[in-house]
């Protein structure tokens, strides 16, 4: 984050070097209080609004049940709420980030979850939309998490993934989605390139898929 002197405090760079669950929890514990200002205000995080607009196009029913998977401090849930969606749940690995989401008042339910493991308390086909905004990344959530996200998504529902261009270019997530499409599990609807974090001069992708 940039402080008053314009210097970077290193949260962005450190996020890409996380390797263990404990490191991830500690990192977001230390970042929670300044995350919204750093990511949303200073660097103009664009993906939450991009995803909310895509949900509005694919699922115009404002009562549809949405899971904001890896909701962080709630920036994506807030964008969905401002678009009129009132039935949004959120989950995240960081208790401190969940507290920030709770403060925003835009979620029906919030719960702690490690997306690399399971959503064990969530029934099959619980959601009309599963959105993952900035979740798939180096040292965070890995491509095989798609299997569990699809389990809790109803048939005909939409999986929407937003991520930065660097992780997409790594190729692991692209390969996973291609494998899921080839198996008939999903159909890719659109891959949209655009702004991710303008303040860091980073672009990103939003991938929309339907569960078959």
Explained architecture:
- Helix 4 crosses helix 5 (75-82).
- The chain is globular, with a radius of gyration of 16 Å.
- It has one domain (45-211): Rossmann fold, CATH 3.40.50.
- Strands 3-2-1-4-5-7-6 form a seven-stranded mixed β-sheet, with helices on both faces.
- It contains nine helices and seven strands; from the N terminus they run ααααβαβαββαβααββ.
- Strand 4, helix 7 (145-151) and strand 5 (153-164) form a beta-alpha-beta unit.
- The longest helix has 12 residues, at 47-58.
- Mean pLDDT is 88; it is low at 1-8.
- With 212 residues, the chain is an alpha/beta fold.
State the gist of this model.
The protein has 9 helices and 7 strands; from the N terminus they run H-H-H-H-E-H-E-H-E-E-H-E-H-H-E-E.
Write the SSE topology.
Layout lengths: L10 H5 L5 H11 L3 H8 L4 H12 L7 E4 L5 H8 L5 E5 L2 H10 L4 E4 L14 E7 L11 H7 L1 E12 H6 L1 H11 L3 E12 L4 E10 L1
Parallel strand pairs: 1-2, 1-4, 2-3, 4-5
Antiparallel strand pairs: 5-7, 6-7
Helix pairs in contact: 4-5
Defining key terms:
about 210 residues, alpha/beta, Rossmann fold, 7 strands, disordered N terminus
Strand content: 25-35%
- Kindly identify the CATH topology: Rossmann fold
Strand order in space, largest sheet: 3-2-1-4-5-7-6
How does the helix and strand content classify structurally? alpha/beta
**CATH architectural grouping:** 3-Layer(aba) Sandwich
The value of Rg in angstroms is: 16 Å
Low-confidence stretches: 1-8
What is the residue-mean pLDDT, rounded to a whole number? 88
Distance between the termini: 41 Å
Number of strands: 7
Counted by DSSP, the helix tally is: 9
Q: What's the order of the H and E elements?
A: HHHHEHEHEEHEHHEE
Main β-sheet description: 7 strands, mixed
| CATH class bucket | Alpha Beta
Number of domains: 1
CATH superfamily name?
Vaccinia Virus protein VP39
Shape: globular
